[in-house]
C-alpha cells in the first residue's frame, strides 16, 4: 500500500508540473496527450488501492470500499475515454456522474452513532446549512466562469450535475466526520475522501477561471488529484489502529455550519462591493435568506434541546444528591470500614464505620499511619501485605489483621485491599475491612474443641497423638513414655451414683492427674474412664517413679458432688523407641494396662514384649474357645456341697472345664478371663446353664429323692447385664424340666454392686423361683450394705476367711459374725474352701451347717457323682 501511495504521489506531481509547463509553453498534441494520460494512470493506482482495502473481514468496511472501488473504476473509464477522445462529453459526463453517485452512496451507508430524534433533526439542519452554503459558493464561482468549458471546453448539463454531486459528497463526508464521528472506517480516511470531493467540486467551479491557454483545462490537474485522494484514503484506513486513552468521543458540536454561513456572507459582501449583478447574485441573496431561516430553526431546536438537557441535568443532580445521601447513610450505619491510604500507608479517608469497630473517630485516623494500631504480632504481616498490594495494581488482595481499641482490646479484621494509585479519581489504596472477631472466636473454639475433651477440658486423643508423634520425632524417643490410666469399676460408680457424679469424678481425676505430673508432661482423656499421660524427656530409670507418683495421687479419696470416692486405677506404661509412632505406643500401653488389671487391679505394669506374646496367646485361646463347645471340648465337673458334720451330699456346684485337643486341660483361671474380655462368656455361660439344668433334671428322674437337692451355677457380671438373661434362665428350666427351686445361681458382689440391669436380672430370677447365692462374700465393695439391696438366699463365705480357722481368732470372729448375720436374715450360709477335718469341725462348732471344699470331695465327673449318689442317703436340705 505504501508503494501505491508513492506512485500516486509521483503521478500527481507529474500532472502539476505538466499543467504548469503547458500553461507557459505550448507543447502541442503530444503534451496534451501526456496531460490527459496521467489521469487514467493515477486512477488505475487508486483502483488497486481501494480493491486492497475492500478485502477486509469487516462487512461494513468491505461494502464501503467495494463501492469506492466501483467509483474509481467508473472514473478510470471516464478519464480513459476522455484521454482518447472517444464517446463524447455525454458518455464521459455520464461515467463521472455515476462515479459521484457511488461515492455518495458509499458515504451515506457508513453507520453513525445513535442519537435522539431532535439530534437527528439538528444534524440534518447542520448538514443542510453546510450544503446550501457550499452550493451557493460553487454556483457563484461557476457563474462567474460561465462560458468556459469544464471537461473539454464546452459547457454541458453533466458538468453541472458532476459539480453538484461532488459538492454533496464532500459535504456529506465532512459533516459525518466532524458532526457525528466515524465508525468502522478510519476518520482520517473519511476526511480525506470528503476533502477530495470538495476539492474537485470547487476546482470544477474555478477550472475555467484558471485556464490561460486554449486546450489547457483544470480537469487535467483535478483528475490525478482526485485519484490521489482515493489512494491516500485507502492507505490511511489500512494503517494499524493506535487507540490511546486521550482518544475519546467528542461532543456533537462543530463550527462547520457557522463557518459555511460566514463564507456565504463574505461572498455576499464581495458581490455588493464589486457591484455584481445577475442571476448569481440574486441566487446568493436568496440562499442567504434560506440559510438565515435554517439557522433560526436550528437555534430554536438547540434552545429546546438545551432546555430539555437542563431539565434532565436538574433531575440527574437531584438523583445524584439522593444517591449521595443514601451512600453517606450507608457509610454512617455500615459495620464495615472503608479506608483510602497513600503509598506510605497513611490514611487519606476513613468511613464512619471505624468508630463502631475501633472506637476511633475518622478524623483521629486520617493523616496517620495504620501500622501502629496493629497488633505487634501482625505489624510485619501488615507491612508485607501493603507491599504486595503496591506491587499488584488493580488486583484485590485479602488478609486478616488485628487492630487495637483505646481500651486495650483487639479486633480481628478481614481486609480486602486494591491498589488504585493509578486511578486519577482515587489516587490511593482502597481497603474494605470487616470485623470478624466473633467468627474468629467461634473458629478458635471449634479448633479447640476438635483437639480437647469437652467434659474435662484436657487434650483429646487426636491432640495427644500429635504431641506424642512430635515428642518421638523431635528428641530422643527412649526418653519418651506413655502411661495409660484406666479407672477400675468406674461403671459401678456411674450406675450407683448417676452420670452427674461420674462426670464430676472424671473432671476431678483429670485435675488430679495434671497436678501429679511435671509441667512438661501432657495429660489427655482418651474417652470414657481412660486417661493418658505423655512423659517427655524423662530418664528411663525415673520413668516408673513418675508413674508411681500418678498412682499415689489417685490413692487419695476424690470428692465428686459431695461424695468422697476412693478411686483405683490400672496403669499401663510403654516407652518410646526407634520407628515407633503414637499409635503403637498407645497400643503397647493398652496391653500393659490390661496386664495390670489381670494382676488384681489398682496396679501398674510396664510393657515388655512378653505381654505381646501373651496377648497373641489370649487371641489364639479366644479363637479356640469360640468353637470349643461345638467340638465337644467343654465339659462340666461338679463339686459337692455337704451338710455338717455328717458330710452328706446336699447339692452340687457346676464347674466348667476345657480339654484342649493340643494343650490338654486348660485351667478356668486361664480361659475364663479371656472369655469375659471377649464376650464369649455369654454364650459359654448359657451352655453351662442349659447343661447343668439338663443333668440335674436327669438325676432327679433316675434317683428321685436321692438326687442332689440343688444345682448351683456360676453366672458372670457380663451375663447379668444381658437384657435377655432372665429369659435364658427360664428357657433352660423349661427345656430341661428342672423345677426352678432346685436351681441356684451364684453371683459375685461386684456384679450387682452398682445396681442397674444386673440387680433387675436378679430380681427377675427370684420371681421365677430360682435361688440366688452371693459368692465370695466379704471380698467386695460393701458386702453388708449389699444385703439390704440385693435379694439373695445364700451366702458363700470366701475361702480367704475360712483359711484362718481355727488358727486365727480374728478370722474366726469374722466367719462367726457372717454366719450370725446370715442366720438373722434367714439366709443359708455355706463355707467355701474347707480343706481339713479341723476346719470342718471348728466351722460346725461356730454354727455352720453347710460347707464345700477338697476335704469333702474334689470336683467330680457326672459318672463319679452318680456313683456317690447311688451309695448315699437322701440328701440334706440346703
Q: Care to describe what's here?
A:
The chain is of the alpha/beta class. The protein folds into four domains: 2-241 and 252-298; 334-442, Beta-Lactamase (2-Layer Sandwich); 452-607, Alpha-Beta Plaits, CATH 3.30.70.270; 628-870, TIM Barrel. Helix content is 57%, strand content 14%. The chain is built from 31 helices and 21 strands. The strands form four sheets. The protein has an eight-stranded mixed β-barrel with strand order 13-14-16-17-18-19-20-21, surrounded by five helices. Strands 2-1-5-4-3 form a five-stranded antiparallel sheet, sandwiched between helices. It starts with a helix and ends in an 8-residue tail after the last helix.
Most strands sheet:
8 strands, mixed, barrel
Largest sheet: spatial strand order? 13-14-16-17-18-19-20-21
Give the distance, in angstroms, between the N- and C-terminal Cα atoms: 131 Å
Structural class: alpha/beta
Mean of residue pLDDT values? 80
Alpha-carbon Rg, integer: 59 Å
Number of helices: 31
Helix content: 55-70%
Instruction: Please report which band the strand proportion falls in: under 5%, 5-15%, 15-25%, 25-35%, 35-45% or over 45%.
Output: 5-15%
Count every beta strand, where a strand is a DSSP E run of 2 or more residues: 21
Q: Give the low-confidence spans.
A: 146-156, 208-212, 242-253
* Overall shape: rod-shaped
Question: How many structurally independent domains?
Answer: 4
Layout of strands and helices, then pairs:
Blueprint: H1 2-24, H2 28-53, H3 59-84, H4 88-108, H5 117-144, H6 157-180, H7 187-210, H8 219-237, H9 256-274, H10 279-333, E1 337-341, E2 347-350, H11 353-358, H12 362-365, H13 379-391, E3 396-404, E4 410-420, E5 428-435, H14 437-451, H15 461-474, E6 481-487, H16 490-497, H17 499-515, E7 522-527, E8 530-535, H18 543-555, E9 558-560, E10 563-565, E11 569-575, H19 582-598, E12 604-606, H20 609-625, E13 634-643, E14 649-660, E15 664-666, H21 668-678, H22 680-703, E16 710-714, H23 717-720, H24 725-736, E17 743-748, H25 749-752, H26 757-768, E18 771-777, H27 783-789, E19 794-797, H28 799-802, H29 809-824, E20 828-831, H30 837-845, E21 850-851, H31 862-870
Parallel strand pairs: 11-12, 14-16, 16-17, 17-18, 18-19, 19-20, 20-21
Antiparallel strand pairs: 1-2, 1-5, 3-4, 4-5, 6-8, 6-11, 7-8, 9-10, 13-14, 13-21, 14-15
Helix pairs in contact: 1-2, 1-8, 2-3, 2-8, 3-4, 3-8, 4-6, 5-6, 5-7, 5-9, 5-10, 6-7, 7-8, 9-10, 16-17, 20-21, 21-22, 22-24, 24-26
Amino acid at each position: 500500500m505504501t508503494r501505491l501511495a508513492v506512485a500516486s504521489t509521483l503521478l500527481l506531481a507529474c500532472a502539476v508540473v505538466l499543467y504548469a509547463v503547458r500553461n507557459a509553453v505550448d507543447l502541442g498534441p503530444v503534451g496534451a496527450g501526456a496531460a490527459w494520460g496521467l489521469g487514467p494512470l493515477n486512477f488505475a493506482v487508486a483502483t488497486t488501492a481501494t480493491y486492497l482495502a475492500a478485502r477486509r473481514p469487516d462487512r461494513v468496511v468491505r461494502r464501503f470500499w467495494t463501492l469506492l472501488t466501483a467509483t474509481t473504476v467508473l472514473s478510470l473509464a471516464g478519464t480513459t475515454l476522455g484521454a482518447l477522445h472517444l464517446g463524447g462529453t455525454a458518455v464521459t459526463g455520464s461515467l463521472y456522474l455515476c462515479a459521484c453517485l457511488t461515492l455518495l452512496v458509499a458515504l451515506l451507508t457508513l453507520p453513525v452513532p445513535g442519537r435522539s430524534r431532535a439530534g437527528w433533526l439538528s444534524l440534518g439542519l447542520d448538514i443542510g446549512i453546510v450544503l446550501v452554503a457550499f452550493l451557493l459558493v460553487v454556483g457563484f464561482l461557476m457563474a462567474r466562469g460561465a462560458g468556459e468549458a469544464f471537461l473539454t471546453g464546452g459547457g454541458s448539463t453533466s458538468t453541472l450535475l458532476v459539480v453538484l454531486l461532488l459538492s454533496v459528497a464532500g459535504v456529506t463526508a465532512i459533516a459525518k466526520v466532524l458532526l457525528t464521528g466515524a465508525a468502522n472506517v478510519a476518520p482520517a480516511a473519511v476526511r480525506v475522501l470528503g476533502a477530495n470531493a470538495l476539492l474537485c467540486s470547487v476546482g470544477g467551479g474555478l477550472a475555467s477561471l484558471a485556464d490561460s491557454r486554449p486546450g489547457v483545462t483544470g480537469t487535467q490537474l483535478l483528475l490525478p488529484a482526485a485519484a490521489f485522494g482515493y489512494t491516500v484514503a485507502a492507505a490511511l484506513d489500512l494503517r494499524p489502529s493506535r487507540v490511546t486513552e486521550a482518544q475519546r468521543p467528542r461532543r456533537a458540536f462543530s463550527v462547520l455550519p457557522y463557518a459555511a454561513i460566514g463564507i456565504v456572507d463574505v461572498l455576499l459582501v464581495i458581490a455588493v462591493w464589486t457591484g455584481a449583478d445577475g442571476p448569481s447574485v440574486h441566487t446568493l441573496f436568496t440562499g442567504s435568506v434560506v440559510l438565515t431561516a435554517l439557522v433560526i430553526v436550528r437555534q430554536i431546536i438547540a434552545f429546546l434541546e438545551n432546555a430539555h438537557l437542563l431539565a434532565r441535568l436538574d433531575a440527574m443532580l437531584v438523583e445524584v444528591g439522593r444517591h449521595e445521601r443514601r451512600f453517606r447513610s450507608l457509610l454512617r450505619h455500615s459495620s464495615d470500614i472503608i479506608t483510602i491510604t497513600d503509598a506510605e500507608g497513611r490514611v487519606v479517608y476513613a468511613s464512619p464505620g471505624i468508630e463502631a469497630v475501633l472506637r476511633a473517630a475518622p478524623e483521629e485516623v486520617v493523616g496517620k499511619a495504620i501500622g501502629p494500631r496493629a497488633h505487634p504480632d501482625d505489624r510485619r504481616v501488615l507491612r508485607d501485605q501493603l507491599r504486595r498490594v503496591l506491587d499488584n495494581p488493580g488486583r484485590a488482595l485479602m488478609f486478616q489483621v488485628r487492630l487495637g481499641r483505646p481500651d486495650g482490646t483487639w479486633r480481628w479484621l478481614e481486609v480486602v485491599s486494591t491498589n488504585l494509585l493509578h486511578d486519577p479519581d482515587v489516587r490511593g489504596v482502597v481497603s474494605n475491612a470487616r470485623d470478624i472477631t466473633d467468627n474468629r472466636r467461634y473458629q478458635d473454639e471449634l479448633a479447640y474443641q476438635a483437639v480437647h475433651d469437652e467434659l474435662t477440658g484436657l487434650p483429646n486423643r487426636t491432640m495427644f497423638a500429635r504431641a506424642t508423634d512430635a515428642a518421638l520425632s523431635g528428641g530422643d524417643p527412649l526418653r519418651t513414655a506413655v502411661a495409660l490410666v484406666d479407672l477400675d469399676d468406674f461403671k459401678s460408680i456411674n450406675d450407683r451414683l448417676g452420670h452427674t457424679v461420674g462426670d464430676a469424678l472424671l473432671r476431678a481425676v483429670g485435675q488430679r492427674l495434671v497436678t501429679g505430673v511435671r509441667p512438661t508432661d501432657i495429660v489427655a482423656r482418651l474417652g470414657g474412664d481412660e486417661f493418658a499421660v505423655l512423659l517427655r524427656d524423662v530418664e528411663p530409670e525415673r520413668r516408673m517413679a513418675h508413674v508411681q507418683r500418678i498412682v499415689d495421687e489417685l490413692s487419695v479419696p476424690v470428692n465428686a458432688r459431695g461424695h468422697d470416692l476412693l478411686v483405683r486405677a490400672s496403669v499401663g506404661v510403654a516407652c518410646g523407641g526407634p520407628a515407633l509412632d503414637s499409635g503403637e505406643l498407645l497400643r503397647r500401653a493398652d496391653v500393659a494396662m490390661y496386664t495390670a488389671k489381670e494382676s488384681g487391679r489398682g496396679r501398674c505394669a510396664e510393657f515388655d514384649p512378653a505381654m505381646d506374646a501373651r496377648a497373641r496367646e489370649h487371641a489364639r485361646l479366644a479363637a479356640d474357645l469360640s468353637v470349643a463347645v461345638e467340638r465337644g471340648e467343654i465339659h462340666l465337673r461338679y463339686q459337692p456341697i455337704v451338710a455338717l458334720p455328717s458330710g452328706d451330699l446336699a447339692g452340687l456346684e457346676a464347674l466348667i472345664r476345657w480339654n484342649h485337643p493340643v494343650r490338654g486341660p486348660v485351667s478356668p483361671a486361664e480361659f475364663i478371663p479371656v472369655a469375659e474380655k471377649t464376650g464369649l462368656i455369654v454364650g459359654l455361660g448359657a451352655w453351662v446353664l442349659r447343661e447343668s439344668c439338663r443333668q440335674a433334671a436327669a438325676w432327679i428322674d433316675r434317683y428321685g429323692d436321692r438326687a442332689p437337692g440343688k444345682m448351683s451355677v456360676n453366672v458372670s457380671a457380663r451375663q447379668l447385664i444381658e437384657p435377655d438373661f432372665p429369659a435364658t434362665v427360664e428357657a433352660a428350666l423349661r427345656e430341661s424340666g428342672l423345677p426352678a427351686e432346685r436351681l441356684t445361681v451364684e453371683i459375685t458382689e461386684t456384679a450387682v454392686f452398682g445396681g442397674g440391669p444386673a440387680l433387675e436380672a436378679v430380681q427377675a430370677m427370684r420371681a421365677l423361683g430360682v435361688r440366688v447365692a452371693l459368692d465370695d462374700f466379704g471380698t467386695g465393695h460393701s458386702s453388708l450394705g449389699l444385703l439390704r439391696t440385693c435379694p439373695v438366699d445364700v451366702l458363700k463365705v470366701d475361702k480367704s476367711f475360712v483359711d484362718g480357722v481355727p488358727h486365727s481368732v480374728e478370722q474366726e470372729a469374722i466367719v462367726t459374725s457372717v454366719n450370725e448375720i446370715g442366720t438373722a436374715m434367714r439366709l443359708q450360709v455355706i463355707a467355701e474352701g474347707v480343706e481339713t477335718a479341723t476346719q470342718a469341725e471348728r466351722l460346725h462348732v461356730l454354727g455352720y451347717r453347710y460347707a464345700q471344699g477338697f476335704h469333702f470331695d474334689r470336683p467330680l465327673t457326672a459318672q463319679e457323682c452318680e456313683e456317690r449318689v447311688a451309695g448315699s442317703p437322701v440328701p440334706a436340705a440346703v
